[in-house]
Design brief:
Structural class: mainly alpha
Number of domains: 1
Number of helices: 4
CATH topology: 434 Repressor (Amino-terminal Domain)
CATH class: Mainly Alpha
Number of strands: 0
Strand content: under 5%
Helix content: 40-55%
Order of helices and strands: HHHH
Radius of gyration: 13 Å
Shape: globular
Largest sheet: none
Distance between the termini: 23 Å
């Protein structure tokens, strides 16, 4: 599932998709990641400033890795964030 993530909303959508593909509930992911279900919901909705280590735990609970790669385009618009 390679997906370009450029915002909290993109990350949340990718996490939600992975969770649903694995037939897991938010509470299941939360238990595996040792976080609150509400935090999983916030992350999925892109409405959080969760710490990176928390996001990494949620990704690990879904057997996902985070990969950093160079952008394909050189244009950068800081107003997109």
């Amino acid at each position: 599932m390679g997906k370009v993530i450029r915002s909290n909303k993109d990350l949340g959508a990718a996490i939600r998709l992975a969770r649903k593909q694995q037939n897991l509930r938010q509470v299941d992911v939360a238990q595996k990641a040792s976080v609150r279900q509400a935090l999983v919901s916030d992350i999925e909705n892109g409405a959080t400033t969760a710490k990176l280590d928390t996001v990494m735990r949620v990704l690990a609970a879904l057997d996902l890795d985070l990969s950093v790669v160079p952008r394909r385009t050189t244009a950068f618009d800081p107003t997109e964030y």
